[in-house]
Design brief:
The protein is mostly helical and 289 residues long. The chain has 13 helices and no strands. It is globular.
C-alpha cells in the first residue's frame, strides 16, 4: 500500500484534531436534547449507518479474519468507550476542564504505540512529549484546585481506552484505508448500539432543540466518522507517536470553542499553556522517531 507524503499526512492528522476539538462543545449541545446514554448510542448508530453507506457504495470487501480483533479494540476504545466516558464526565465537568485533562491523550497514545509496535522514539521526542503532558497536567491541576472529581476519573479512563483504540487503528490504517478501519469498527458496534439506542431513548427524556440536533449530527458525522477517517490516514502516514503529539493542540482549540459556542470563561493561563504546548508540538514533529 502506498504511503502518503509526510506533509499531507500531517495535514490530515491536524484536520482530525480540529474535528475532535469540536467534540466536547457538540456533546454539551447534544446533552441539551438527549440523556448521556441516548446520545452515545444514537451517535454511534448514525455514524455506523453513514459508514455502512460508504462501504456499500464502495463495494468494500470484508476485512481479513486476522484484522477483526484489532477492529474490536478500535470499536471498544473510540466508538464506545471514549464517547461514553467523556459524555458522563461532561455532566459534571466544564468543557474547558475536560479538554485539558484529555490533553494527556498524546503521551498516553505514544506510550501505547511504543508498547504495541515495539518502536522506540528518540529521547528528544520523549522529552518534548513529557514536557507537553506536564504543561497540560499542571494547567489541569491549577484549574481544578488540586481536587480529583468523579468526572476526572471518567476522563482518565477515557484516556486509556482511546489511546488503545488510536494505536490499534493507526496500525490497521497501514494495512487498509483509514476510512475502512473506522467504518468496519462502527459496523461492528451497530447491533449493540441499535439496541442501546432503543433502550436508552425509552428510559431517558428527549427534548429536541436546534443545539441538541446540531450537536448530535456533529459528534456522529463530524467527530466519529470524518474525524477518525482523516486521523487514521494521518497516523498511517507520519506514524502514531508523531501524529499523537498534534493532539496537544486539541485542548487549546476546544477552549476556544468553549468560549465561542458555549460562553464559558477562558482561563487566564490558557495563552501561556498554548505557547508551551505549541513549542512541544514543534519539537516532537522534528524529532527522529
Amino acid at each position: 500500500m502506498r504511503t502518503d507524503p509526510l506533509p499531507r499526512g500531517t495535514l490530515l492528522a491536524a484536520l482530525g484534531v480540529v474535528s475532535f476539538s469540536l467534540t466536547f462543545p457538540s456533546t454539551v449541545w447534544g446533552l441539551e436534547s438527549f440523556g448521556p446514554w441516548s446520545l452515545v448510542a444514537v451517535r454511534s448508530t448514525l455514524a455506523a449507518l453513514i459508514a455502512g453507506a460508504f462501504l456499500l457504495v464502495g463495494r468494500v470487501p470484508l476485512p481479513e479474519r486476522r484484522h477483526w480483533a484489532g477492529l474490536a479494540v478500535v470499536a471498544g476504545g473510540v466508538v464506545i468507550g471514549f464517547p461514553l466516558l467523556t459524555t458522563l464526565a461532561l455532566q459534571t465537568s466544564t468543557t474547558s476542564h475536560a479538554a485539558v485533562v484529555v490533553g494527556l491523550l498524546p503521551l498516553t497514545t505514544a506510550t501505547f504505540a511504543a508498547l504495541r509496535t515495539k518502536r522506540r522514539p528518540s529521547r528528544t521526542f520523549w522529552f518534548a512529549a513529557v514536557s507537553g503532558a506536564v504543561v497540560v497536567l499542571a494547567f489541569t491541576v491549577q484549574q481544578s484546585g488540586g481536587a480529583v472529581s468523579q468526572g476526572d476519573l471518567y476522563l482518565f479512563g477515557a484516556l486509556l481506552v482511546c489511546a488503545a483504540g488510536y494505536t490499534e487503528g493507526g496500525r490497521l490504517a497501514r494495512l487498509m484505508p483509514g476510512w475502512h478501519v473506522i467504518g468496519w469498527a462502527l459496523i461492528l458496534c451497530l447491533p449493540l448500539m441499535t439496541v442501546g439506542s432503543a433502550v436508552a431513548l425509552s428510559l431517558e427524556p428527549v427534548h429536541l432543540n436546534a443545539h441538541g440536533v446540531i450537536g448530535l449530527v456533529w459528534v456522529a458525522a463530524g467527530s466519529t466518522f470524518f474525524g477518525l477517517y482523516v486521523w487514521y490516514r494521518g497516523m498511517a502516514s507520519i506514524g502514531i507517536p508523531k501524529a499523537s503529539q498534534l493532539q496537544l493542540a486539541q485542548p487549546l482549540l476546544t477552549l476556544v470553542w468553549s468560549v465561542v459556542l458555549l460562553g464559558e470563561t477562558l482561563p487566564l493561563a490558557a495563552p501561556l499553556a498554548a505557547v508551551a504546548v505549541l513549542v512541544c508540538i514543534a519539537v516532537t514533529q522534528r524529532a527522529k522517531s
